[in-house]
Amino acid sequence: MTVRVLVADDQALVRAGLCGIVATTGDQSVVGQAATGAQAMEVAGLTQPDVVLMDVRMLEMDGLEATWRITASGLARVVMLTIFDLGEYVYVTLRGGAGGFLLKDAPPQDLLTAIRVVAAGEALPPRHPAADLRLRRLRDRARTAGTDPDRPGSVQRRDRPPPAHRPGNGQNPRVC
Q1: Contact 49, 72 (CB under 8 A)
Q2: CB of 82 closer than 8 Å to CB of 55
Q3: What is the mean pLDDT of the chain?
Q4: Alpha carbons 6 and 141: distance in angstroms, whole number
Q5: Per the count of CB atoms within 10 A, which of 19, 91, 122, 161 is most buried?
Q6: Spans of biased composition, class Basic and acidic residues (predicted)?
Q7: 3-state DSSP assignment of residue 31
Q8: 137 within a domain of the structure (yes/no)
């Protein structure tokens, strides 16, 4: 079975590179590209990908909001990509429905593995100490409240990711 991939990044050169990496496999193919979160939602609706490779920061609608909308509607699973090594992004993307989070400096093989894992319905474990700590605390609080966050449906999902998903002053500069 071929995994259908949508690549969403505001930088054309990065999109081309990601498409090239996916093209090196025999079990994955790129079915579409998008330069904004809004385009990613539109193209996902048209192409029905299995996995969306989504940049965190994009104009018009950032990748975090687009991820929440895509996963909430059941259009596709999402692997978030960014150059920013911030635990806050890891936490927010996973709480927002993403199946995985990778830094853009990850080896190509890690990207291909992430696509396969997320397409299979599994989640990539976070590889950031700050996100690991926040997820552990969330699990502890949920268990104290009598719910099991690791069992689907036992914890109500938020309507959207927390609003404080941008580090710094809340500006969203045109940086990937």
Answers
A1: no
A2: yes
A3: 77
A4: 35
A5: 91
A6: 148-162
A7: strand
A8: yes
Q: Is the distance from CB of 68 to CB of 80 less than 8 angstroms?
A: no
**Amino acid 105: pLDDT:** 86
The number of domains in the chain is 1
Token readout for 3 is 């995994």
3-state secondary structure 131-175: HHHHHHHHHHHHHHCCCCCCCCCCCCCCCCCCCCCCCCCCCCCCC
Residue 83 belongs to domain with CATH number: 3.40.50.2300
Question: Hey, what amino acid is at 2?
Answer: T
Q: Which residue has the tokens 């790129």?
A: 30
**Domain that residue 98 falls in:** 3-144
Dihedral sign for Cα atoms in the order 149, 152, 158, 162? positive
What pLDDT, in 10s, does the model give residues 75-91?
A: 999 998 888 655 555 65
User: Which token pair is 121?
Assistant: 């319905």
**Does residue 170 belong to any structural domain of this protein?**
no
What does the alpha-carbon distance between residue 104 and residue 76 come to, in Å, rounded to a whole number? 21
pLDDT for res 29: 97
Length of the chain: 176
Q: Hey, is 39 helix, strand or coil?
A: helix
Residue 161 in domain: no
Question: Is 0.85 topped by the overall pTM?
Answer: no
